[in-house]
Amino acid sequence: MQFRALYDFLLRHSPILLTTHVHPDGDAVSSLLAFGFLCRRLGRDAVMYMADPIPDRFRFLPRAGDVVVVGAGSLPRKYEGAVILDVGSRDRIGKVEDFLAPSVEIVNIDHHISNDQFGNINLLHLDASATSQIIYDIFCDFGFTPTPSEATCIYTGILSDTGRFRFSNTTSRALEVASCLVNLGANPAYLADRIYYEVPLEAVQAMGKALTTLEMFGDGQVCTLFLSGDDEVQDSDALVDLALSIQGVEVALLFCEMDDGRVRISLRSKNRVNVSELAEHFGGGGHFKAAGVRMRGTLQSARDRLLPMVLDAVEIPQLGVTPA
Ligand code: 5GP
Ligand code: MN
C-alpha cells in the first residue's frame, strides 16, 4: 500500500477536518469533495470546511452542499486531525486555521512545486496534473473503485487544473485517469457545458470591462489587466488566459481587487518564465506557468511592485529550467 501513512492517519483520527485553499478553484473543490467521499467509504467522521464559498459553477457537484463555509460568527471547534488539499502553504487555508488544535496532526496532499511541506505527513506528487488525480490514486491504493459521483468530482478537478486538457500538465497519465473516470460514470460533455458554458450575462460584461484595461509592456511580452472589486467574472482563469493568448505575450498578469483591501494577482506564463518563483518572492506561489499572490494596496501599486521583476524575467530567458 503506497498511502499506508495516510491510511493509518485516517484510522487514528475522528473527527477529521478536511479543507482546501481560499478562493477555491475546480481542483480545490473537487479534491475536497472526493476526499470527503473517501472518508465516508472508510466510515470516518470527516467534516469539509472552506474559508470561501464554492464558486457557483461548481455547486452542482455531489455533496457540495455539505461543505461548511467558515463565517465570521462560527464558533471554532478544534480538530486534532486535518487533511489539507491542494494547498502550497498553510496560510492559504484562511480562517479555517481557527479550527485546528495547537497539537493538530496535518496531512498535506498537493501537487504545487512551491509547496513548503507544512504537514506532519506530506503527500506531494508534483507530476500529478491535479490534486484530484492524487485522490484517484489513493482510491485505487485503498482498493475502492470510484462511484459515478466520486468519478465526477475527480474528473472535474483534472478538467479544471489542466485548463480543459490544454496545459502542459495534460500528461498521458492525466488522460488515462480521465478515461477511467469516464468509464466509471463521469460525463465529459455534460461537465464541460455545466462548468464553462453557463456564464451569467453580468460576468461576460465584467470581462469586457476588464479587457478595456489591457496594457502591454516589455516590447509586447507582458500584458496586464485590472478587475475592479465591483466586477465579478465567473472565470478569472479565462480572462488571464485570453491576455496570455495574445501573440508575442510571454507573461500575463491579472490584478483583482479583493474585499479586504488587498489585490489578488494571477500570473501566467507561456513558455520560459517561472511565475511561481516570481510569486514566491512576494509571498505567493503556484506552478511554473500559473501562480498567484496577494498584496496590500491598489491595483496600480500592486502592478508597480510586480512589473519590474516580471520585465527582468522576460528579458533573461531562464535557461536550464524545465517547465512543469
Ligand atoms: P490563480 O491565479 O488561479 O488564483 O492561481 C494559480 C495557481 O497558483 C494555483 O495553483 C493556486 O493554487 C496558486 N496560488 C494562487 N494564489 C496563491 C498564493 O497566494 N499563494 C500560493 N502559495 N499559491 C497561490
Ligand atoms: Mn490544483
In short:
The protein has 324 residues and is α/β, with parallel strands linked by helices.
Question: Can you tell me about this structure?
Answer:
The longest helix is centred in the C-terminal third of the chain and has 17 residues, at 299-315. The protein is globular. By secondary structure, it is α/β, with parallel strands linked by helices. It has helices spanning 4-12, 26-41, 131-141, 148-161, 172-183, 188-196, 201-211, 236-244, 275-281, 299-315; strands at 16-19, 46-50, 68-69, 79-85, 100-110, 121-124, 215-217, 222-227, 251-257, 262-269, 285-286, 290-296. It has 2 domains: 4-196, Alpha-Beta Complex (inorganic pyrophosphatase (n-terminal core)); 201-313, Roll (Diaminopimelate Epimerase, Chain A, domain 1). Helix 2 packs parallel to helix 3 (131-141), helix 2 (26-41) runs antiparallel to helix 4 and helix 3 runs antiparallel to helix 4. The model has no long low-confidence stretch (mean pLDDT 95). The structure holds guanosine-5'-monophosphate and manganese (II) ion. Guanosine-5'-monophosphate binds next to strand 11 and strand 12.
